[in-house]
Design goal:
Helices cover 40% and strands 22% of the residues. It has helices at 64-71, 81-86, 111-122, 129-146, 150-162, 176-179, 184-194, 210-221, 275-290, 295-303, 331-343, 349-366, 370-384, 391-397, 400-407, and strands spanning 2-5, 12-17, 23-28, 35-41, 49-51, 57-59, 91-96, 101-107, 200-206, 233-234, 247-252, 258-266, 308-316, 319-327, 415-422.
């Protein structure tokens, strides 16, 4: 078992890859009472078209990864995972995103029993015509419920306007029309292609013994074989840098208008090719420009421009996108100021170094929390294929010269904006 120090942090990462390609990552904490267990596959809603291990090409209905996640909780022996975990006071959950599906349990006791059960139930699919049909109705209700939540609808809409070809433009849950097309054969095909040991991993963080956890993983994964050592081939959509729709105005049941604004860029144009370092610089740029102590925030407060703002960077293949969602009573003025800030980015070396110090302090504090550590390491594995074990040194290595080069390639040539207005009172 490999032991890797998390440099700058008082913790060690234990890693083992079994003969079948399954990887287990463990960060034990003796001074914690709780733990989190995650069992995940690198398969999410972005994967629609692929070639299976038997060379058969498949185009699946949208939302099938999310559908599959739901069905994993139905076991042939009738043992409900939520009931199993609930009996020991353990929380259980699952989530499907664009690039992954994960199954989680977290608690303070029964670590070994819970980890063994987690591996067992995810390793045992049980799909029938009857239980698939029942789930179609459940998920249809779930999707219809989300249409009443403005933030959810807008998150989907902004990606529809950004992406022309890539499945990222489709909601993780898929469409009601496609959900009705899913069969048990579709589910088994996707499970047997993507829920294979060499495409899956476990991440354990908290109070436990690594040697005991590894022994359980070896026992439970011993009979699990890959259909092939080759990974499935995922379609390359060759997403263009031009947005799908530049401007749109919509009306919704909201009280305060919203602005959604996205900047779409080509990753190939950036001088830094390392995905992680590029992410660090991009995060630094928006944190300095739009953080709580930024000039933009100060101006927006003084002018009453906004009551809330969310922004994120998103990398999809060769596309880099910056997405904003902002609550504002003055959408026109807000958009003008936002574009002005992004059109003339200036970050001093003092601002950069001040943010780096805050960032490093946050990294050190993060390791004190099991959930935060789990989220950070899980994101690394999905995004970069491995945990980042020395992020503090990478942050320290960031410099003004490289920062300026990246800033030069942020432009507003390809943007999408959505103005969301309250519906007029029909009474």
């Amino acid at each position: 078992m490999e032991k890797i120090p998390l440099k700058g942090l008082d913790a060690t990462l234990y890693k083992e890859t079994l003969e079948n390609g399954f990887s287990i990552y463990m960060i034990p904490f003796k001074n914690k009472n709780n733990y989190t267990q995650t069992y995940a596959t690198r398969y999410g809603s972005d994967t629609i078209e692929f070639t299976m291990s038997n060379k058969k090409a498949r185009i699946t209905p949208t939302g099938i990864a999310h559908f599959l996640e739901h069905k994993m909780f139905e076991q042939e022996d009738g043992k409900d995972p939520f009931t199993f975990y609930g009996e020991s006071g353990t929380d259980a959950n699952a989530a499907t995103d664009h690039q992954y599906t994960k199954y989680i349990c977290s608690g303070t006791k029964n670590f070994k029993e819970n980890f063994r059960f987690l591996l067992r139930y995810v390793n045992a699919p049980y799909f029938t015509d009857e239980n698939v049909k029942k789930e179609q109705g459940i998920i249809e209700e779930e999707l219809n419920m989300y249409t009443d939540i403005p933030e959810f609808v807008l998150e989907v809409k902004v990606r529809e306007n950004i992406y022309q070809k890539h499945p990222r433009r489709i909601d993780v849950g898929g469409t009601v029309e496609d959900i009705k097309k899913i069969t048990k054969e579709d589910l088994y095909d996707c499970y047997n292609t993507f829920y294979q040991p060499n495409n899956m991993f476990a991440l354990l963080v908290g109070n436990f013994e690594p040697e005991e956890a590894l022994q359980i993983a070896k026992e439970e994964m011993a009979s699990r074989k890959n259909k092939t050592t080759a990974r499935p081939t995922i379609k390359d959509y060759k997403e263009p840098v031009e947005v799908n729709k530049k401007e749109e105005t919509v009306s919704m049941n909201i009280k305060v208008p919203k602005v959604l604004f996205a900047v779409k860029l080509s990753r190939k144009n950036f001088p830094i090719k390392d995905k992680h370092m590029l992410n660090l610089y991009l995060q630094l740029i928006t944190s300095v420009l739009f953080g709580s102590s930024s000039l933009f925030k100060e101006y927006a407060r003084n002018e009453g421009l906004m009551s809330g703002m969310y922004h994120e960077w998103e990398q999809v293949d060769d596309i880099v996108t910056l997405i904003f969602q902002i609550d504002t009573k003055k959408p026109v003025e807000l958009l003008k100021e936002l574009k002005k800030t992004l059109s003339s980015i200036e970050i001093s070396e003092d601002d950069m170094n001040r943010y780096k110090k805050v960032w490093i302090a946050n990294e050190v504090r993060m390791i004190d929390y099991v959930d935060a550590t789990t989220d950070n390491v899980f994101s690394d594995i999905i995004t970069y294929n491995e945990p980042v074990t020395d992020r503090i040194s990478l942050i320290r290595a960031m410099n003004k010269k490289e920062l300026d080069k990246i800033v030069q390639h942020i432009n507003l040539e390809n943007t999408a904006e959505i103005l969301v207005l309250p519906k007029e009172d029909e009474n």
